[in-house]
Fold this sequence. Notes:
Blueprint: H1 9-25, H2 29-36, H3 40-47, H4 55-64, H5 70-81, H6 97-108, E1 112-116, H7 127-137, H8 143-156, H9 158-161, E2 168-173, H10 174-178, H11 184-198, E3 203-208, E4 222-225, E5 234-239, E6 242-246, H12 249-265, H13 269-282
Parallel strand pairs: 1-2, 2-3
Antiparallel strand pairs: 1-4, 4-5, 5-6
Helix pairs in contact: 2-3, 4-5, 7-8, 11-13
Amino acid sequence: MALRSEPTARQIRLATELRRLRDAAGITGREAAASLGVSSAQISQIEKALAGVSEKRLRAMAANYACSDNALIDALVSMATDRTHGWWEEYQERLPTPYLDLAELEYHASHRWDADFLHVPGLLQTEEYARALFSYVNSEFPQSEVDLRVEHRMKRRGIIEGPHPTPYEAVIHEAALRIRVGGRSATRAQLARIQALAEAEHVTVRVIPFDLDDFPGAGSAMVYAGGPVPKLDTVVRDGPHGTAFIDAEAQLARFRALFRRLESVSLDPERSRDFINKLTKEL
Length: 283
């Protein structure tokens, strides 16, 4: 089998989890290779996501590592044997890799949480809002490149708008709702879209108002994608040097607790809908 030149984030995550299982068992790569009757190079390639792994070999590895978490093992097998060709693949070599990785992560997510303080979360954005954002941030881009990014973002919305939607929760600060991205009419349309989506059973939207006392959490923006088991959850954060996919168990626990704290200080869903309706009427 030819080695991969650029593994996806999902393939890298599988490789990372297999390495973590081996490290937890206190087994060296050479020892793991000997137990399977393969070369150390093959183990290294699997753990670097440069080569795939069959279900039979993966289960043998898990048994050798004394992993008794059957739910985790089954989830890893599913990741290893998945042959999904998603819509995002048509954007290969047309958009940066993190765009494709995020779309794939969302597609497989069991649930999705967003927290944002300056912009409306991507899955809730209208086309006009998204276009205004991409045009401003990438002012040097030709229109075709902006169009491509907007098109990709609109397709990502399918996970909460399709026939089998993913459970979705969003915590949005009032600042993000008040900033007039694209102008007054675009903002009004954006608020109306959030209102409409918030009526769906699988969507929960909460607002953190400006007048909340003692709120230091404005730097807590995140995308949280649930995995088939909690150990396979992923947090995505954008920074000045690119997009980071966070999967360390201690960090995941920290972000889970952080999101729940954000929820606890926000308005409940009904009051949040009323709040957004009031903002819309003010425009």
